[in-house]
Write a structure and sequence with these properties.
This is Nitrate reductase [NADPH]. It catalyses: nitrite + NADP(+) + H2O = nitrate + NADPH + H(+). This protein has about 1150 residues and is α+β, with helices and mostly antiparallel strands. The chain has 29 helices and 49 strands. Strands 3, 35, 36, 37, 38, 39 and 40 form a seven-stranded antiparallel β-sheet that branches. It has a six-stranded antiparallel β-sheet with strand order 19-29-28-27-21-22, with no helix packed on it. The chain has a six-stranded parallel β-sheet with strand order 47-46-45-44-48-49, sandwiched between helices. Strand 44, helix 26 and strand 45 form a beta-alpha-beta unit. The protein is globular.
Length: about 1150
């Protein structure tokens, strides 16, 4: 695709010839049959509509295939340019990378985003632009001078200690060496609740009275509690005997799979910045990679089939962004390879497709209980890293057979292979820190059709969400999640187990005496096939009562019941045949009622899905209970162990699950009973289990001293790059730069916190890492933060928690969200000047109010490969706040008939856009031009952005060029509002949460910094009765650089002297009649209000102008920071 510099030119040496091939016109019949078109009637079956779609028709396979091939060639051409060392900019890259999700959304997960496959750092800093070469030469010269000075100091005897900036190699040792060196009772069934009306009714039917039933013997009668149990068992017998087979052809009953497509701010600086995730998921492994589980109550309330967004996530690294059109699955056997596109995999094996409910659990489920005994090498999983969904796809055995793989090796004539064990190996497309994620399972297990091993392409009847393996993963019913490889790219057969890192060193159950991953014992056991985890083990969990749930003692009445409930599961297709609950610590057990998903049986005896269970108890017994304990039994009549067994990786904990009641008293509420689970997922310390003495002693060691050197917040924030990465943990400062190349969680997990002074870094590190990690961290120590920085970290954490708690439902209904990125669609682009455009974006459906206060900003985000590209803007429309629920709001002043100027449509730089969009663009332009300036009236907003085009010496602005090239209909992300200054009208401001009033406002603005000032000017001058006076200094280089000049001139002209603006140009042309030169103290005094109690100065512009000139000048004049002087 040609860029601006590659526009074709007309040469006089080229003959201007026109050649037209003769074509027949439409037939008479076709002319007569043509519909009577109307301007607004483009939506007709078979004809291209305004969105470039043919309603009612699927896409022709040939046309789709041609587009895929063309896009592939464009990518190859771009890669070739890069390999040849050609300089490419953002315009080149975005025009060569097609994304099909706008035109072909069918095969995409909900919330799919376009991602530009590059990084801002590579384009701007790593490419050999002339400007970069000059900077590199200067850096090399500075480094050489520094080395010379250090050498001189060493020669004079001053070099015994490390110099500032000099790397220090600190002693390390294997973990096993380091550890060696640092050597009155009731009958229990009486608790069962009795529905007395039902009991009496059944008694009459069966010929007994008084709640007792004869058993056939004249001397034996059942108590009401025993009758209740008997009726429950009889009912369950009928249910189990009538369970239906699942033929694999049904649909998932779960339809509430995605409630939001917003992106969490925690992902914005990671490679996962393009992924929408449920905000309710608890991140147990820090920001990145994503490892999360839902709150236990939410998981249970989701039902027997888990909604997609509430299913747990277990990632080892960034989620690969695989395109349906380009991704292929390779099946390898005997030197041959079958390479399947996603369309081929979906369509070729239709007869083999099944859709069945499968429970998948993480081997680390309930690991936090083990971590409180002794820290394992795993995350703090709660009890909800498990879920059940319908998974749909073809049987893997049928795909393997089609690739020439034999159905069995045992019966083959080849003596070399007969009797040998074989393995099916899987490799994902992700690249975690320790290499490709690979594993293997026994060949015979895969080839047994009764094991239902599938290549899943759908989850609950939707394309796989990216976190769950899009576009294809292997699903092995009854197996642990770690064997169900996501983002599958390769399957092959071998005569030995997979030898990759993740197959060898993960998902293993070690004996308790193994306490590290190196050393001879660990080496022997991690390579022992018997330690590998394959099938899930038997487990059961209590979900109700929930953690922290309370029952007021005053509400407890005789005969009232409470339903204890939870879930249970097992591996290998084994049925969970019994669930029991104890209220007295395990001395007596009550039988619970099981609940199965619809048609849970496969092949007569396979149960791939969990069960829910419940037990109704008399509430008076619940109050007196020592604890609430659950255990389950499987088809082998095996049950769970009473106590947990610690192991190095924290795997397969399935001990009794215990909830403990305690009496609490709250002011004004009276006494109540509160329930506490053993743990809460992640760093939260809310369960009844407490750290063991061993864990407490380890934590005490971590609080060791730090060097006396102190670092300010300003200094720490400078070290936020891959080449220079500092972390603040527990108010200590660490240089983690050298760790980035080998960190087990990947470098993104660290870089997300680089240079940041916030509590989140400490919380994440403490919740994830063991004592060896603390030791390695201490090797990186530099010093500690200053007292002021420590106070800032503490108070910021408190403020964030308070803000989260106080967020109202009204705020959640606005388009802008403070903690989440929301997609908005680009619907129009208008050229304001040769290098400036006004972009119109449509807000999400059902959220017509942007929700931005006057003077506040929003952030625009665009997805790049390593992180989100983020820039801050102030919209130039809307300019007035939304009306409240009673219809009250600011009205237009009749004297200010302010309308946006009409601009011509800019098309010259956008030849890559389809011509069919032109009519739609014209309609949208007229709509945007005439819409209201009040928030909420049109469901759209405008940004006016200057494009910093590339030149031969530099690549130009990142986001401004991307916006200039972005096809209409594409999406960007917005988040906000940001900014601590809000104008409410009539001189009233909120600044950093404090109410202030100013009658006269001075503005000093530079370049694109004009937009927040413009929003304030427009709000004041368009609000009837607002007499706040305004003085403005607007600094730019040239007249063409002045943004919104026409709008500013109109405001000043119609203000009647209420507003005066001084434009100053540093490179003014001969015709310029305004101020010339650079802003100085004298110019500010001539143009602005002098310091006074009721006057304020607000600033926004480039650092050289604001920090270098304006701030010192205004402070010297008498303005006071944080009182009468603020920055937007």
């Amino acid at each position: 695709m040609a860029t601006e510099s590659e526009k074709p030119t007309m040469s006089h040496s080229t003959p201007w010839e026109v050649r037209v091939q003769d074509r027949p016109g439409s037939s008479v019949e076709e002319v007569n049959r043509e519909p009577d078109w109307e301007a607004n009637h483009s939506h007709r079956i078979g004809f291209v509509n305004r969105d470039d779609r043919r309603p009612g028709l699927t896409h022709p396979r040939e046309e789709y295939a041609e587009e895929i091939e063309e896009a592939r060639k464009q990518l190859e051409e771009m890669r070739s340019k890069v390999d040849m060392g050609e300089l490419v900019n953002f315009r080149d890259i975005i025009q060569s990378q097609r994304d099909f999700h706008i035109k072909y959304p069918e095969e995409r997960p909900l919330g799919w985003r376009y991602v530009l496959n590059t990084t801002e750092d590579w384009v701007k800093n790593k490419e050999q632009w002339p400007a970069n070469m000059q900077q590199h030469q200067k850096q090399e010269q500075d480094l050489a001078k520094t080395k010379t000075k250090q050498q001189d100091k060493r020669e004079t005897g001053g070099g015994k200690c490390p110099q500032a900036g000099q790397a220090v190699l600190r002693e390390s040792m294997p973990e096993f060496e380091w550890r060696a060196d640092n050597n009155l009772k009731e009958k229990h069934q009486e608790a069962r609740h009795i529905d007395r009306a039902t009991s009496e009714s059944r008694g009459k039917e069966r010929g007994h009275e008084g709640g007792k039933e004869q058993t056939g013997s004249p001397n034996v009668h059942f108590t009401p509690q025993e009758l209740s149990l008997l009726h429950s068992l009889e009912h369950e017998k009928d249910v189990v005997s009538q369970l239906k087979q699942n033929d694999g052809k049904g649909k998932s009953p779960q339809t509430h799979n995605r409630s939001s497509i917003a992106i969490d701010e925690q992902d914005q600086y990671t490679p996962d910045n393009w992924l929408p995730r449920c905000p309710d998921l608890i991140r147990i492994g820090g920001k990145h990679p994503m490892n999360a589980e839902p709150p236990l109550s939410r998981l249970f309330d989701g039902g027997l089939i888990t909604p997609n967004e509430l299913h747990y996530v277990r990632n080892h690294g960034p989620v690969p962004r695989l395109m349906w059109e380009f991704h292929k699955l390779d099946i390898e056997y005997g030197g041959r390879k079958l390479s399947l596109s996603m369309n081929e995999l979906k369509n070729r094996y239709r007869e083999s497709v099944i859709n069945i409910p499968i429970t998948m659990a993480c081997t680390g489920n309930r690991r936090k209980e083990l971590n409180l005994i002794r820290k394992s090498k795993g995350l703090n999983n709660g009890a909800a890293t498990v879920g059940t969904a319908y998974w749909k796809g073809p049987l893997l055995r049928d795909v393997l057979i089609s690739a020439g793989v034999p159905k069995a090796f045992a019966r083959r004539k080849n003596l070399k292979t007969r009797g040998m064990r074989h393995w099916v190996n899987f490799a994902g497309a992700d690249m975690p820190s320790e290499g490709p994620y690979e594993t293997s399972i026994p060949f015979d297990y895969v080839m047994d059709p009764a094991n239902d091993v599938i290549l899943a392409m759908e989850m609950n009847d939707l394309p796989l969400p990216a976190d769950y393996g899009y576009p294809v993963r292997v699903m092995i019913p009854g197996y642990i999640g770690g064997r169900c490889v996501k983002w599958l790219r390769r399957v092959w057969i071998s005569s030995e187990e997979n030898k990759s890192y993740y197959h060898t060193w993960d998902n293993r159950l070690m004996p308790s005496f193994v306490t590290e991953k190196d050393g001879r014992f660990a080496e022997a056991l991690f390579h022992n096939p018997s330690t590998a985890c394959y099938e899930n083990n038997l487990n059961s969990v209590i979900a109700k009562p929930a953690q922290g749930e309370t029952l007021a003692l005053s509400d407890i009445k005789s005969g009232k019941s409470y339903r204890i409930a939870g879930f249970a599961y097992d591996g290998g297709g084994r049925e969970v045949q019994r669930v029991e609950v104890s209220l007295d610590g395990g001395e007596n057990w009550l039988h619970a009622t099981r609940e199965f998903p619809n048609s849970p049986l496969r092949h007569g005896n396979k149960f791939w899905a969990w069960i829910h269970w419940h037990l109704d108890v008399d509430i008076s017994h619940l109050v007196r209970a020592k604890s609430i304990t659950v255990r389950a039994f499987n088809a082998s009549k095996t049950t769970q162990p009473e106590k947990p067994t610690w192991n190095l990786l924290g795997m397969m904990n399935n001990s009794w699950y215990i909830v403990k009641p305690e009496i609490i008293t709250s002011v004004g509420q009276g006494p109540a009973i509160s329930f506490r689970h053993p743990t809460e997922a992640g760093p939260t310390a809310g369960g009844w289990m407490k750290p063991s003495m061993e864990v407490l002693m380890q934590e005490a060691k971590h609080q060791g001293g730090a060097p006396e050197k102190q670092f300010t917040r300003g200094e720490i924030e400078k070290h936020n790059k891959y080449e220079d990465c500092w972390l603040v943990i527990d108010n200590k400062v660490y240089d983690a730069t050298s760790v980035l190349n080998w960190h087990p969680g990947g470098r993104a997990a660290i870089l997300a916190h680089a240079g940041k002074c916030h509590q989140e870094t400490t919380n994440e590190f403490v919740s994830i890492h063991d004592d060896l990690a603390w030791k390695k961290l201490h090797e990186c120590i530099l010093g500690r933060v200053t007292d002021k920085t420590a106070k800032f970290i503490r108070e910021s954490a408190e403020a964030a928690a308070k803000e989260e708690a106080e967020q109202s439902q009204d705020q959640k209904n606005l388009a802008l969200q403070r903690r989440r990125w929301v997609p908005v669609k680009l619907i129009n682009r208008r050229q304001v000047s040769p290098d400036t455009n006004t972009y119109t974006f449509r807000l999400p459906e059902g959220k017509a109010v942007l929700g931005l206060g006057t003077c506040q900003h929003l952030q625009i985000g665009f997805h790049l490969r390593d992180k989100m590209l983020i820039r801050q803007y102030t919209p130039t429309r809307p300019l007035l706040p939304a009306q409240d629920s009673q219809g009250h709001g600011d009205e237009f002043s009749e004297k200010h008939d302010h309308k946006p100027p009409k601009h011509h449509v800019h098309t010259g730089a956008h030849r890559h856009q389809d011509k069919q969009r032109a009519s739609r663009q014209s309609e949208v332009t007229e709509e945007a031009t005439n819409c209201s300036l009040m928030d909420g009236q049109s469901g759209t907003f405008d940004l006016t952005v200057k494009t910093y085009f590339p030149s031969p010496s530099q690549p130009g602005g990142a986001l401004s060029n991307i916006l200039d090239c972005l096809p209409l209909g594409s999406e960007v992300e917005i988040r906000g509002p940001t900014g601590d200054i809000i104008y409410h009208g009539n001189g009233h401001f909120s600044i950093e949460g404090r109410d202030r009033h100013f009658s006269r406002v001075s503005l000093v603005l530079g370049g694109s910094g004009i937009t927040p000032g413009y929003a304030l000017m427009a709000r004041i001058l368009m609000t009837p009765g607002d007499r706040t006076e305004i003085r403005v200094v607007d600094a730019n280089r040239t007249e063409q650089d002045i943004l919104l000049k026409q709008e500013l001139d109109n405001l000043e002209k119609k203000s009647g002297g209420q507003m005066k603006i001084c434009h100053v140009l540093s490179q003014a042309g001969e015709s310029w009649e305004g101020e010339r030169g650079k802003v100085d103290a004298g110019m500010l005094k001539r143009s602005l209000f002098k310091p006074a109690r009721d006057n304020v100065a607000l600033l926004c512009g480039p650092p050289g102008l604001i920090q270098g000139v304006v701030l010192p000048a205004l402070i010297g004049w008498g303005y006071i920071e944080d009182q009468s002087l603020f920055g937007f």
